[in-house]
Amino acid sequence: AYALSTTTLPSPEGGAVRVHALIGNTAAGALYAAYDYLERLGVGFSTAGPSLPAQRTLHTAIPPIPGTTFT
Predict the structure, then answer these.
(1) CA-CA-CA-CA torsion sign (48, 53, 54, 58)
(2) Which helix or strand (DSSP H or E) is residue 20 part of?
(3) pTM for this one?
């Protein structure tokens, strides 16, 4: 089982920062959470190898993940 969620925390410099949590109850669950997160960002996986979206910088806004839990 794994869960994905987004929350906003206070920033040490002032303001707020968005934090994405990828949580698994086992090592395999954590891996499923990471794959799910990457797929939501446009990365695809197949037997031919990964399929990457157009290059983006780390400064690109990543949309919030609705609170979801999968088993």
Answers:
(1) negative
(2) strand 16-24
(3) 0.65
